[in-house]
Specification:
heterodimer, A: 135 residues, mainly alpha, flat, B: 693 residues, Fumarate Reductase Cytochrome B subunit, Fumarate Reductase Iron-sulfur Protein, Chain B, domain 2, five-stranded parallel sheet, elongated, binds iron/sulfur cluster
């Protein structure tokens, strides 16, 4: 009950602060929301353990969507980095910033793309091996 | 124009509401995961760890945040790697917090902005550097896990996922910044030296497209960051919380002191047969394990292929705890890691037999190398001994070789089935008589030292030579000392470490009663185990003495010129290497005095084994192993003897009764063409002794 009250009050104040133009209320709203979710978390964490079935369903659910989300979440930055490389190729020579600076940007973008690709491969492999781990 | 930036640039108020709402969710998940663990810890036995709070806090900060126990000269790679990850991550975390304080507290509440001017420019620089540092650490970690693959490290899906997750966050951060710089034409953009060049390349692209992309990337970055916070409590990422708590609330007693069972006659259960029999602090400690494998590096059982691997022992307990309603650090999906750490195999298993095998429990030599190495102060030995206590006392289950040892200790006060009357038989081989305390007391006299000979030094013929050597040294130095003779009995050390706590306490109390009766103040021992027991464990039962090991006393005597040394016969034969006994070195930090003796021995050419001092490799004799059959083909003492032989030493010096036996045995079993002699420091000194005029 207390948790619900905290969350409701926090949500109301947040609407007021962001949409009603009273930014001073934002921190109070966030504090109330945090108190609500943390309080709720602690309360249910200290209570009896959740049924094993729930745990196993949650784990399976997590794994299934984790793969999809992992890919979706990196697509925007991957696109932006490809644009950096493309931009450098198309406008690099006539850029007012200087060709060397723009080309450096392209190299950095390529490096970041490589890191991103490696990270996604490692993450997907990790998720697959977790899913396949024999019990 | 003052350098500054617009926070929540290109983000509409509605998105801000959703973000703030979302932000609270992972906090709830984190709280839930931590609370589940705390719930389990609270089921353990009570134990007070609240003393010396200020000292605890300072130490914990020094060892964790300042990396005191993480950085190791002998592992520069791992040290640099962790500093990079920690330093980079902390910089980004603090930077994000600064932005939040600026946008959510300073500006809206006080109308004051501090994130501007020189501070803002420094902030940009630090954030870009922090990202690079983190990426460097991640690259090193991945290289170690995927390419170097050290024997002590195994990678779970969780380990790899966390590293990938962090890398994605950093790349997202840089890209997002590049998009913003490209859109705003930020005049101070160059301070963000990684993303700025990329921003320059983006300037030729339509602003609308960049704006949309910036919004989507902002959301994806936010979701990835918040999800990581939510995942923290369920992964190895929880270690900043649990490891800090464990270091903060560590046991402050000497590491060589095993806790006694108080009021043992009325205790409901002896030892541990389920998790709740451990103390809450021990239950917490298993959750603090971060799978680093450092405890394996010098573990004699791991290094000789036995069942016991201290890391897996701890993680098996952690997995079982998770099965019983807690949370396992570092598992993805139900049953993952099951093969190694037995997590997910059910809450109804027996702790002994189902979770930890009896082989694992009896393999341990109690050498303490695992505890010495563990960066977060997990104490394996007290937990292993707790399991032995239950096996011995409640289940009457122990290796068959232990039975005659227990019987002999119980009936005769020594493990060798020797009659107590024979305890002082070695004195007959002395030129000058050795006094017994009963005679000294009868004359109303006192002594400088009680020489506590110990069972090995009293009854084993090889060790009697060491006893005689030490007595000769004490006599040469003109010290007044006496022995307990037939009134002496075992200190209780082997019984205690083999889990027979009743017997251990009985034996200790008998000795304490005698020593207190004679009003003993100072005790010298030539056995590292007697030394540790009397020094660290006897105070629990009312025995408070100043205890000195013979290596310390001999060095003192040499320094004070109470004895002088000529060239001893043994040393004329060549190099000498010193083996640090676990119960003298690692448990009691006596490293320098034995080496001091060797340095002062004329003609001694001392060489070190690769594993020395706190990193010494056990001889295999502790924890009652000297009396039990070693499992597996590879023997611990033979492994250590090989290391000693590889130094080219002709003499292996030691200073512990059990080490002597294990080395003699190991040398005998070795197939080396040239076998070294094994001598105690007292023998080396006695051989080199020149009587004072
Ligand atoms: S005390 Fe020694 S033998 Fe036992 S687990 Fe630790 S390192 Fe291994
Ligand atoms: S017990 Fe300590 S040293 Fe061993 S893996 Fe766990 S944290 Fe590392």
């Amino acid at each position: 009950m207390k948790v619900a009250l905290l969350l409701a009050a926090g949500f109301g104040l947040l609407l007021l602060s962001e949409l009603g133009g009273v930014p001073a209320l934002r921190i109070v709203a966030v504090a109330l929301l945090l108190a609500g979710t943390i309080g709720g978390g602690v309360k249910s964490g200290l209570a009896a353990a959740p049924p094993a079935l729930f745990k196993s369903l949650a784990a399976r659910f997590t794994l299934a969507i984790a793969r999809v989300i992992a890919v979706l979440l990196v697509l925007p930055v991957a696109t932006a980095l490809i644009l950096v490389v493309g931009g450098a190729a198309v406008h690099g020579a006539d850029s007012t910033a200087g060709t060397a600076a723009v080309m450096t940007g392209a190299v950095i973008a390529l490096a970041l793309l490589a890191i991103l690709a490696a990270a996604v491969v490692v993450a997907l492999r990790a998720l697959r091996s977790a899913a396949e781990d024999p019990t | 124009m003052i350098a500054a930036r617009e926070i929540l640039f290109n983000i509409d108020p509605f998105s801000a509401v959703v973000l703030y709402l979302l932000m609270t969710l992972p906090a709830g998940f984190l709280a839930y995961g931590l609370a589940r663990r705390v719930r389990r810890w609270r089921m353990g036995q009570p134990e007070d760890r609240s003393d010396n709070l200020a000292q605890r806090i300072i130490y914990a900060l020094r060892m964790t945040v300042l990396h005191g126990r993480i950085v190791r000269p002998r592992n520069p790679y791992g040290s640099v790697m962790h500093i990079c990850i920690f330093g980079g991550f902390s910089t980004l975390l603090v930077g994000t917090t600064i932005v939040m304080i600026e946008s959510d507290i300073a500006v809206p509440l006080f109308g004051a902005s501090f994130l501007q001017g020189g501070f803002y420019l420094g902030f940009k620089l630090a954030m870009n550097l922090g990202g690079l540092l983190l990426l460097a650490g991640i690259a090193m970690a991945l290289y170690r896990r995927l390419v170097l693959k050290p024997a002590t490290q195994e990678s779970s899906a969780d380990d790899l996922l966390i590293l990938a997750w962090l890398a994605v966050l950093v790349v997202q951060g840089y890209t997002l910044q590049a998009l913003r710089l490209a859109l705003t034409h930020d005049p101070w953009g160059a301070w963000s030296f990684v993303s700025y060049p990329a921003a320059l390349a983006l300037r030729g692209i339509a602003a609308e497209l960049l704006g949309r992309l910036h919004q989507i990337a902002w959301w994806s970055h936010g979701v990835v960051a918040l999800a990581l916070i939510g995942y923290t409590a369920y992964s190895k990422l929880v270690h900043p919380f649990t490891a800090f708590a464990n270091v903060l609330l560590r046991r402050l007693k000497p590491r060589g002191e095993l806790d006694a069972i108080n009021n043992i006659d009325t205790a409901e259960v002896i030892g541990a047969s389920n998790l709740e029999h451990f103390s809450w602090a021990q239950l917490m400690s298993v959750d603090a394990c971060m799978h680093c494998g450092r405890c394996l590096e010098f573990c004699p059982t791991f290094n000789t292929g036995k069942a016991l691997r201290p890391r897996d022992f701890i993680l098996s307990l952690a997995g079982f705890q998770a099965d019983q309603g807690g949370v396992f650090s570092g598992v993805l999906g139900e049953g993952a890691n099951a093969g190694r750490f037995k997590h997910g195999r059910g809450a109804d298993r027996e702790l002994i037999g189902g979770v930890v095998s009896k082989h694992e429990i009896w393999d341990c030599t109690t050498c303490g190398a695992c505890m010495e190495q563990c960066p977060v102060h997990i104490e394996h030995v007290p937990m292993i001994v707790n399991l032995r206590r239950n096996l011995v006392t409640e289940q009457n289950s122990f290796p068959p070789e232990a039975q005659p040892i227990f019987n002999s200790l119980e009936r005769l006060g020594n493990p060798y089935q020797s009659v107590p009357m024979e305890r002082a038989a070695w004195t007959k081989k002395m030129d000058a008589p050795v006094a017994e305390m009963k005679d000294v007391a009868a004359k109303g006299e006192t002594v400088d030292y009680l020489f506590f000979v110990g069972c090995v030094g009293s009854f084993v013929s090889r060790n009697q030579k060491i006893t005689i050597a030490l007595a000769r040294i004490l006599q040469a130095a003109g010290l007044k000392f006496a022995i307990l003779g037939k009134e002496e009995s075992c200190t209780g050390d082997p019984a205690r470490r083999m889990g027979h706590e009743f017997l251990a306490q009985q034996l200790a109390m008998k000795t304490i009663e005698r020593m207190n009766h004679y009003n003993i103040r100072k005790v010298v021992t030539s056995c590292a185990h007697c030394f540790n027991a009397i020094k660290n464990e006897y105070p629990q039962l009312g025995g408070n003495y100043e205890v000195i090991h013979h290596s310390q006393l001999i060095e003192e005597l040499i320094n004070a010129k109470k004895i002088s040394l000529g060239e001893g016969a043994a040393l004329k034969q060549g190099k000498v290497t010193y083996h640090d006994p676990c119960y003298l070195g690692r448990y009691n930090q006596v490293f320098d005095e034995p080496r001091g003796i060797l340095a002062k021995l004329p003609g001694a050419d001392a060489v070190e084994m690769p594993r020395n001092r706190a990193h010494s490799f056990c001889c295999g004799g502790g924890g009652g192993q000297a009396f039990m059959k070693e499992q597996g083909a590879q023997r611990i003492n033979v492994t250590r003897v090989k290391e000693a032989i590889a130094t080219g030493a002709e003499v292996v010096a030691t200073s512990c009764a059990f080490c002597m036996g294990m080395f003699e045995d190991g040398v005998g079993a070795s197939d080396a063409a040239k076998k070294p002699r094994v001598l105690d420091l007292a023998e080396l000194v006695a051989e080199a002794l020149e009587q004072n005029p």
